[in-house]
Amino acid sequence: MVSSESLFSAKALKDAARKDLVRLLDSVQGKKSLVIDPSVSGPLSLIAEFSLLKEHGVDKIYHLQPTPADTGDARCLIYLCRPTLRNMQWIASQVQQNASNGKRIEYQLLFVPRRSVICEKLLEDEGVLGEIHIGEYELDIVPLDEDVLSLEVESAFKDIYVDGDTSCIYSLARALMKLQCMFGLIPRIVGKGAKAQMLFDLLMRMRRQLTATAAWKNVHDPFPSYCEFDSVLILDRSVDLITPMCTQLTYEGLIDEIFGIRTTFAEFDSSVLPSTAAPSTGSTSAGPSSSASAPPAQAPTKPRKVPLNSTDSIYQQLRDSNFTIVNGTLSQLAKRIHGDYEERHKAQTVTQIKNFIGKLGTLQVEHQSLRLHINVAERITKYTQDVQFNRRLDAEQSLVANLSQGIQLEYIEELICKQAPLSFTIRLLCLYSLVNGGVKPKHLDHLQREIVQTYGIEHLLTLQNLEKAGLLTRLESQKNGYPSIRKSLRLIVDDVDEQSPNDISFVYSGYAPISIRLVQVATTKSVGASSAPIHTATGVASAVASAAVSVTKNAAAVVTGASSITTTTTSTTTVTPATTINGNPAPSGGSGSANGSGSGPSHAVPGTATVVNQTVGWKGCDELIRAVPGATLEEVQIAKPGLLPARLKSQQKITLVVFIGGCTSTEISALRFLARNDPAGREYVVLTTHVLNGTRMISELSEKVDRS
């Protein structure tokens, strides 16, 4: 989504987080040990490697657990954890136990991302508050990739929509303020959903407080005079609950569905991990086509976490593709790597040999990565060939297309009777409820009773949580808004070309995520090209399976042998802001920039029209947006009273897309597709509370009972 020439760089955020961490570590003299909340260790690993921690006095690292770790003769312990009551109880217990054992230890507690009064009160009640020095480490924005920023709060959806805890929205508002202080005040704010309005209100309050504080301290405007983002689009997850319930069909999405991706890391077992032996290049017969001279490699014996991000060039090419084309891509990559290895035979001069040796390290890394992804693709192939997978996929596609609803209800009951994994059953039931405006009370009561009897009494609370979140509801009236949304936003697309897609619906093989359609409407005033009749699901399931059969045959052999998405408007489009900030009227022209921001050079796509000065917003799409439930937000931020909005740093357009309650990998892939095909060269950066999928979403809402 963000090109190499883009002004925005996540490196600035990473460097700021590293600097803050180093400052906190250096504030404690001498050797120290870190005790880290497991939910923090993943984000921390993306910010600072162990060598950096060691340079600043960290001797050992432990995970926070109910029982105290054997810290040996450590004289200083630094706890780095989320502000939860459970963590505080564990810390208090460990401090008390160490005191009873006669250990004299200096304790420092760093809350991530901010301290909590309730947690401090619990420590006081336990009688250990005086023993602990308390601070905070503001690791609020974690750069997962150059175009993906996350708060990494995995409980965000449940906290907001079930428990009514909006502290995560407050953290998101702080993160947005931090971005604006670093990259400039964002001229246009567009949003959809009640929580989007709540986030905006918090953002405006924080801005007033920050401006008042700066004026009191006689400091200049805390925001830069330029801005690198031309707009921010805030999406409430409740606006689109359908998308997370569908099975993701991109390569990255299926890895997330099968293995799970947490903070860009996926855990693979020994059957997937390639051997560690690198290909030999010491003789003329060496290379990827020959391994006879190399010693037999020892296969890994235990699971290992592997980073999956843009630093892996092979993964970067595969991740956003529909899985049906992974076979061809792997074959092409294998042939290219094999050809690069074969160039060693052409090296005759010292210069040519030196050049080959110079790129040998990169080739070996790519070769190892290719072997990993071939193994991963083989595992995904087995998964997608399963009969039950194809039946579920067929049911999902039929539901979103409003086909054969009665048959799908029978299939859900069949899953319950067969004791299929609870997440599969609940996802399909919730999807049925969402696309039909609820489930008839008679059917819902029957299915709920079956679920409780099959999966356990504790899931009475799970079903209650689903109802609170709006995922599973009773059909109270015959009014159902989904069919009109499906038609107006063109959610179902026929004849999807996964090889050369021309619409965002390729990520679900025919279904376009509502959330990304809204982004498309706001930025391009279109919902893609006109479509043919509804795409059926049977073809989708069989296509995934049949294309997956040969995912690795050609690639493995080579390695071992070595409709437009943009608007068709031809006229200039300018939207005048409808509202103002702090009572200041928006300037006439309303382009969001003193210099006509957003009017930069257009990068026309062959066969499409050029869009000039397209302003991000809902203007001109009022009827379409009204079909989607939830409040609508469109505001213009003024730098100072009487002045035009902050000017863009360049003519480049970057939209910050904020997801409240999490987003899926496929939604990120769809945004990258929009960026690649935008005629005006618009780029997108994602800021989300966390990256989720349907299984993790249901798991978070499920009640756990300790049966030991």
Describe the structure.
With 708 residues, the chain is of the alpha/beta class. Among the domains are: 11-139, Sec1/Munc18 (SM) protein, domain 1 (Rossmann fold); 145-241 and 566-697, Rossmann fold (3-Layer(aba) Sandwich), CATH 3.40.50. The strands form four sheets. A seven-stranded mixed beta sheet has the order 6-7-17-16-10-8-14, sandwiched between helices. The chain has a five-stranded parallel beta sheet with strand order 2-1-3-4-5. Strands 11-12-13 form a three-stranded antiparallel beta sheet. It starts with 10 loop residues before the first helix and ends in a 7-residue tail after the last helix.
CATH architecture descriptor name of the domain at 145-241 and 566-697: 3-Layer(aba) Sandwich
Number of helices: 25
How is the quaternary structure best described? single chain
Termini separation comes to 48 Å
Mean pLDDT over the residues? 82
Brief overview:
43% of the residues lie in helices and 11% in strands. It has 708 residues and is α/β, with parallel strands linked by helices.
How is this fold's topology laid out?
Blueprint: H1 11-26, E1 32-36, H2 38-47, H3 50-55, E2 58-63, E3 76-81, H4 85-100, E4 106-111, H5 117-125, E5 132-136, E6 142-145, E7 148-150, H6 156-161, H7 167-183, E8 188-192, H8 194-216, E9 226-227, E10 231-236, H9 242-245, H10 251-258, E11 261-262, E12 265-268, E13 304-307, H11 313-318, H12 326-342, H13 350-385, H14 387-400, H15 405-417, H16 422-436, H17 441-455, H18 459-468, H19 482-488, H20 514-524, H21 537-549, H22 553-560, H23 622-626, E14 632-636, E15 647-648, E16 654-660, H24 665-676, E17 683-688, H25 694-701
Helix pairs in contact: 4-5, 7-8, 10-13, 12-13, 12-22, 13-21, 14-16, 14-21, 15-16, 16-25, 20-24
